[in-house]
Batch of 4 targets.
Target 1
Amino acid sequence: MAKFFYLNAENLSSLPANVAVPSYNRDLIKTSILHIGVSNFHRSHQAYYIHELIDKYKELNHGICGVDLLDSDRKIYNILKDQDGLYTLYTKESNGVHKAKVIGSVVEYFYGPENPLAVIEKMASPEIKIISLTIAEDGYLLNEITGAFDINHPAVSDDVKNPFNPKTVFGYLTQSFKLRKARNLPGCTLLSCDNIKSNGDTMKQSLFDYVSKTAPELLDWITKNTSFPNTMVDRITPITNAKDITMLKDDFAISDQWPVVCEPFSQWVIEDKFVHARPNLEKVGVQFTKDIGPYENLKLRLLNASHSILGILGTLHGYKTVYEAANDSDFMLFLQAFLDDEVTPTLTDSNNERITEYKNSLVSRFLNPHINDQLFRICQESSAKIPLFILPTVKHQLLNDQNIKRAAFVIAAWAKYNDGVDDNENSYNILDTMSGTLIRTAALSIQNPIKFIEIKAIFGDLSQNETFASSYIEALTQLRANDVKSCIKKMILN
């Protein structure tokens, strides 16, 4: 058997020359960033950028203290503790070149369920200048129907009863801010890195709603001592599988229990409003801006919408990965027409050159055969994605009396997707917070197509728009009678 090395601090110097390892002494790093939610995406994105800043410019004051708060996070916590916070970023380029880089920017790690008071104390530490987050949309506790913070959520009630053993990120933040205020310490920047629209504004509103109920005397201090920049984050990061772990061991002699696979492309745009002097991340390619809107709209309506469309249509046809769907010329012709004719007119805050460049980059990114991005991952929680990625295009186009035919077809395809059976009669699971509603209304739409778009939590009043409703009903009628592939071919010909 070929020799390999377990990934930890002791074995770093023994790794082969084709593995990039930290050039810095990790013992000298000071943590000024506390990150909540040490997900695959955080490790492929923010932790990568911080690593590059430390590695290339020896800025040792910006190390990351990782924090996980969920019971389900115990596995990653145990693995990273076992590996001294180290992990491998396994970058796969479309030409077959694979690169392994050991990331060393996570130098401390806390696990909330094990010691919540230690997490609160660390959050309150004056050395922590930035508290960043990847907690996914459900971590913001937003009401499914209104989109506002759900002040009646059971986890909030639990926090009120057990303030020093909180279940929510807001409970931890509130207790840490109480300590900062009592100790006359400065505040910090809260930096959301989640893929939601206006993520900083959403974080701020949710926190203020929570504090208004649980600790209203803290509101003035938070207002004066914190900031909430909006950000745009972008890097395709699929689920790590056993094959990736084996390939990493075979090709680079690294035994990493949970490496992170990603594409070479990466982008991070941040509103430049920090409480303290921020890390000089522009040195490693991060863009700072006064207006996140144009960047956010490009990504959500082009990349994320494209992903959802390939996920829904591809699953119905029987494909399993983004690469398979992107290699289907019919699907890509449909997608390209949707982006050109229906999305591009909505991107009024971006210039044509930027839009064209971004659309062209999507094609090459989707056609990377080595990024094994599963369609079931793309389709998860579509009830939260469709309103964010596709419906803004529908609403803009309707308001301006423009084409929505392909967008309506996608919504009809999503209704059929919720039947849970593809065009080859193979079943698949529907993983969605609203799965009960989606499956029930999809079944009702077999007899009465309008039923699916009457889900107000998703579509609002769109079912009452005659143009949208008629286009949707026509598309769903065709999809119920034919397979998705033939429907798309017909649309292309027309």
Target 2
Amino acid sequence: MINAAFRAEWFPNIKKNFLAGLTTSFALVPECIAFALVAQLNPLMGLYGAFIICAMTAVFGGRPGMISGAAGSMAVVIVALVAQHGVQYLLATVVLGGVVMVLFGVLRLGKLIRMVPYPVMLGFVNGLAIVIAMAQLEHFREKTPQGEHWLHGQALWMMCALVGLTMLIVYALPRITKAVPPALVAIVGVGLLTFGLQLPTRTLGDLAHIAGGLPALHFPTVPFNMETLKIIWPYATLMAMVGLLETLLTFNLTDDITETRGQPNRECVALGASNIVSGLFGGMGGCAMIGQTMINLSSGGRSRLSGVTAGVMILLFILFLSPLIERIPLAALVGVMFVVAQETFAWGSLRVLGKVPRQDALVIVAVTIITVLTDLAVAVACGIVIAALNFAWQHAREMRADIDDSTAGERVYLPHGTLFFASTVHFQELFQPATDPARVVLDCKHLHMADHSAIAALEALYERYEKAGKHLQVRHLSRRNHDLLARAGVDVGVA
């Protein structure tokens, strides 16, 4: 059984998974270099982090087929830290952030991702698709002595033509054959074309030189004291939360695409451990990368082999293959990422915006816009808050009561719904102590009390009837509701 499970995770369709990993590695390189430059780091730090995190999460993680690496969301978090305190404090932060991730997984908190509503997931996917596409626009700019400017003239036309050719190959090749990943054919084909015809276009080597040696073990040279902890703890916590959030959301998306179920807590532990190792070997922190994951999945990558291949190929690029890799035209990689952005965007969400409840449509649009304008963590938090407030509002409006006056001199209220902070006002409005008879019964058979606000509302109702000189009797409390009142020391004349 163990051998069968091992083979299922590692060796189904070896050729397809190897080629998927190779394709993904080409897409990882420019992204990781760009993110390192955003964080004002040596590009090799991004590549080392990508190698370590991608390979380790592929081997030990809980979601075969998902690709992790040095992610942009993590880079943005640590820009200020690098500028103020330097690289060594960054490495210490990556290690500490990894420890937080490991603890998150060990405490089995990965299941909290189930609290993210589906509209938030749609907004997350749409927002990141737009971010992926917008990030490629930077490659249409060039640095000149007068500053950075948009490409123009022949350079712009050449860039657009090669991007268009790349996208055409990716879209058209699957209609002819599915033996090889179309993105791999597009990258290699456009690369050979530009090299053979000596076409004037920017290459990966223009972005950064990637030749280097093996990453070496190096403990961060920072003082191990409370002052250092005060500096790095806020960044490490934020880095861990952003990384875990993006990883678990990408995890859910991968589950849906592959129609399989992974192990989120195991993925959190593996991600944390890989960040610790990355920090100790001079690499950036990282998390799941939705763009590269989509490339891997669309290329047929489903096993751990695809992720390991992607990670190991990055190391080989650094050690031996940099002269070849640096010749890859940026236009080919940009074209592939444009296709990824198009395929990542949930176009179906646009068709259903007018069909789903308005509040869900609001969540989709809000999360999408906030993801683009700020970052993923803020967007998802806002989406969850909006969804939670809507849920509370809808449940508050469902509070109602049946009234039974069949017994002379007695009125029975039979409320239905959940009594909690948002429904207490509506609950109070259901009763009329001034006009009710002397004897009133509150039948709680269909009433669920959820929080302390419910207890306070019941106490307030009892006092209203007391002031009116009338008696309120509570009946049919559930065991849970009875225990809730008993713990609070509330006595409202329960029968």
Target 3
Amino acid sequence: MKFPHLKHYVPRLPTGIYGRAALILLMPVVVLQLVVAFVFIRRDLEDITQQMSYTVVRELFVIDDQIEAAPTQEAALNALEPLLLRLNFQLRFIGRDEAEPQTYVPFEDLSGRVVRDTMMRSLPEFHSIRFTRSHASYIVMGTKFGLAEIEFSRRRATVAAPHQLIVITVVFGFMLVVIAMAYMRNQLRPIKRLADAAEAFGRGRVIPYQPRGATEVRAAGAAFNDMRARIDRQIEQRTLMLSGVSHDLRTPLTRLKLSLSMLEDDDAEPMLQDVKEMEDMVNAFLDFSRGVTTSAMEETDPCALVEEAVDNWTRQGKTVHLVETVGNRTVPLRTAAVRRALDNLISNAVRYGTRARVSVAVMQKSLRIRVEDDGPGIPEDLRGDAMRPFTRLDPARNQDLGTGVGLGLAIVADIARAHGGTLRLGTSEELGGLQADIVIAL
């Protein structure tokens, strides 16, 4: 947007494609109706009504002249009788003890206001005018014999159906907008399904999707299906490759262990330690390959999953405490993968610190699993590197404990991304060490 400061003055617009499309469709129709109604009322209806009102005013002047020439009320009524008959008017004099009628124009009567204003400007003896729901209208004007009330047909001053064009425009415009919005909703439904399929795939779920709709939407849907299939094949090939390589390495490692078992303990101990480190590396490769598994989601209780993991580490003699559980409902997760990610975080916490705090919160739209420790933590400028595969942060960790192959946090980040979430690293306020949060959108 070229003028960002204008955002504060522009009303909030719809964010969804259906809302914006409806706005694009509705605004021109509304503007067109307003313009047509304004032009019709201001230029055609108002001009015609004024001309017809002037004609009635001239006839009232003729009636007033006849009254002025008559010596009495009876003589004036007798003289006006043939004229009133030809003009289709009815006249009566209002008695002195009778209340003067007041002006009444219905709220929705636009042409009646024009007639009233024209009469007030053009007729000096004008007092009031009343419009009824029927065709009869009444105007009160002053004469030398007192107030006279003249009844005339509404059609003498206004057109027969002054609001017909406006009503037809509004009604048919509304009907066309409803029909167009229903058709547009049907056309936008395939786009919504494509967006839902893409969002689900980004969160690690695969839902059936068949391209439908217009040609462009079908092309986009087919491209999405091809992209999803290629990504699935790439993940599967990587998983099979890492699993195969790691599995094949176990055979020579087993032979080495058998050979070393025949040597003296003093001579074999350093080499056995090397073999053990190699086995740990192989296990890390296998965990990394399983971290992006394409297994199906299943309904899982995150609180129960975390409690089970904490109990398992406590039985091993580790200082791990479950400090908070918020929410108690099941959510779709890859249970084995999330358990592996949680074990990796707790393992890092008890490896580089003396104790760990674990908490889980299941909110309305997100899941957060937090692991904190009292270790040295990770500097802020190195946290991005810590989640990359095969990266070891020697300055941030105690090398006497072994640095591994740098896949621990990478596995956790990979599992979080496979669920459409992320791994966030920070500093624990309670323990002062590393704070790792697995945040998954639900």
Target 4
Amino acid sequence: MICCRPSRRDLLRWSAVVAGAGLLPALDPPSARAAGAARPVNLELVTLTETSAVLTWYTGVPGTDDGLGRMRPAPADAEVLFGTHPSRLTRTAHGPSGTPYHYVELTGLEPGRTYYYKARSNGLAAAATGLAGGQAAGAPQGDVFAFTTPQPPPGRHLFSIALCNDLHLGETVAGLIGQLPWIKGISQVPGHPPYPEIMARALIADARARGAEHLLAAGDVSSEAAPADLRNAKGILDTFGTYTRDYLVTRGNHDRAHEGAAYSTCTVGRYQGNDCFQDAFFPSGPSHFARELRGLRVIGLDTYDKPGDGGDSGGLSAEQRSWFEAELKKDPDRPTLVFGHHPLFTENDPLSVTGAHSLDAGQSLGILGAYARTPGVFLHHAGHTHRNQRSVFPLAPRVVQQEVGAVKEYPGGFTLLRVHSGGYALNFYKTRSPEARAWSERSRQELSGLWPQLSLGNRVSDRNSVVARDLSGLG
């Protein structure tokens, strides 16, 4: 539960609800069992690489309501017909049958080719959400969609890093809005494991399966920085590898120092309360850092290095700003990735004027100016907004700011950074364990189902992109 005043993200959700989204009940009725009645909906093109694509959709019983505004789930088969001409879909791919939560990966695609596809369950074409790629012109039916695979990054593949954020270990209700009691959230189905744990464990499994050698978690690893939740978060992350060598963590606003008896055993916070996050992840040093991963300089920022209740804009202390600028000046041409919880600025955000979704605007301008003087910086990874959004700002046109969707709720996943000697690719993947797919589809009903339009990324390039860049000096 969010303990402080409504944040900018809270107000965004509230405004959508007031506009007509309605209220969200918290419980999920039992699944329907009549597979023959299943209707496929919510088709989305999630991931698009040079040789593969990932499609997801849902099957439910028409005319039913599970209490969240969607059809009751109904298991079915999953099939995708695809090809290079809209009327000749000659290839077939399948996903697991017997589930309402469908995940199909198309492989063996050619770079730079346009493909056409139709997804179906029980022989019925899946209805798209508007995030399924372009509708194919001239197709015999209106249920054929198209995408064009990109060219791969130049050069040979060097290594891959999983970028993630917003795990919120300890959270029990998704979609709560500050202290507005008439807005209800979404809880896990009774008897099922806590959803943050399901999603965090699925993150680790999929990041490793996709070839990630390192993992960067950009803040809000906990719901409210309770010691038990931080221990749980670290225990799950430790299954990926060794902390500070294989994975790195930064602080989010939910990980700030807190007041109260539950936190009394932790180190006294610099600004307020007791800082359990510091004890869990940075017991002997500052909560900002620079590390080397395969020759790549990785800089982690604590974007809530300030007093506050978590509902305001982020900020760096004067000491951290000075350290950061000095670190960049040490080797301005060295390939560098920066990550922290709050974005520098947010685009396509109706409430960006409030500033609560990003860093302090003056500090962000200063950072972009420093990036302009540091040619080696190529990527700034941020979370906090719980969405996929790719931005490039005029003050530092060589740097991509990549916001990544939350781990803990729809779309539920991570972005894989694939580093090549001549550039890099960013691809978002939903986690795919059965429990993760079920919770992702359940939690998409935040804002009565409007949340996907704000979080998955309205452009394919917001979640999948390729950049040419000389990175040949990396290991």
